[in-house]
Amino acid sequence: MHVKDIHRIGVVGAGLMGHGIALSFAVHGYDVHLWARGQDRLDQALQNIRSGLQLLQQLGQVNSEQAEAAVLRIRSGVALEELATEVDLVVEAVSENLTVKQELFGVLDRTCPPHAILASTTSSILPSALASATRRRDRVLVTHYFNPPALVPLVEVVRGPETSDTVAETVCDVLRATGKRPAVVQKEVPGFIGNRLQAALVREALSLVEHGIATPEDVDTVIKYSFGRRLAVAGAFEVGDLAGLDVYLNVASILFPAIESSIEVPSVLLEKVERGELGVKAGRGFYEWTPEAAAALRERIGRALVEPRSSQ
Fold it and tell me: Which of 131, 159, 185 is where one domain is finished?
């Protein structure tokens, strides 16, 4: 199977990630079969898709005709068997629960055509655990999108031990056709690449706040107005080569022993959650959030995700 053989894509799950993934495929010309457990969830997903397309229009990524055509390419329903019988690729985006996902992959394996590729958007479950529920282990992998999936270019393609080269290459080609930048994780590992890197940064950021070294505002200021800007156009290894690996070695020798290495969850995070200070959805986290402030942040992130692409 090759990219030219992929025409219809099933998206199973219509929540935060699922609706955005469906939007991304549809806006790039693929016919999409979108499934959710209830009609109310599908109705909300279709509303979110239209809102997402409006944002893409505001950002200059699509025009009104392209947006309307994308909506027409999406077929939705609550009968999984009906939607899955004609697809060439399925992207699963249901809750992050191993049992739920394994049961679903078993159903998809029995329902989808034999040639269909089964992918999951999981951020933590290894592809081998999902492949074990199927009879097509060579055609199972993870496509880990980042939120918001219609805007963030990266998708991690995580191979299981039995994923075939052809399947991995085909999925990467499909992603490129939708404007994505696939990164292949050759050996499955918890957190893949992106979340492991993010977790390392978050652990150190929380440690700095917990020990009174800096406020959340100042930590965020350092990230946004220094290396955060550079990382949008140059990765860690590119920056290392530019600076000189001898310089990297000297810094690592001094700094690595002092960096937070605890495997315990920081108390500053535990206490926030215990108090119900969960962030935007609760109106308070490390910052105070009004609906207007949250909307402004989302728009700022959306514009930033689009604008750097011209430099890459």
Answer: 185
Residues 302 and 205 grouped into a single domain = yes
Place of tokens 């393609």: 157
Of residues 195, 210, 260, 277, which has the active-site annotation? 195
Catalytic site residue from 19, 24, 76, 156: 156
Instruction: Give the CATH number of the domain where residue 243 resides.
Output: 1.10.1040.10
33 is catalytic: no
Over residues 77-129, the pLDDT tens digits come to 999 888 899 999 999 999 999 999 999 999 999 999 999 999 999 998 999 99
From the candidates 48, 76, 144, 164, give the one annotated as an active-site residue.
144
Is residue 175 located within the same domain as residue 205?
no
- pTM metric for this prediction: 0.89
DSSP string across 187-253 = S--TTTTHHHHHHHHHHHHHHHHHTTSS-HHHHHHHHHTTHHHHHTTS-HHHHHHHH-HHHHHHHHH
Concerning whether 267 is annotated as a catalytic residue, the answer is no
**What is the band of 307 on the pLDDT scale with cuts at 50, 70, 90?**
low
Whether 195 sits among the annotated catalytic residues: the reply is yes
> 208 and 260, same structural domain?
yes
Tokens 């199973």 correspond to 12
Asked about 156 being catalytic, the answer comes back as yes
Which of the pair, 253 or 1, is modelled with greater confidence?
Answer: 253
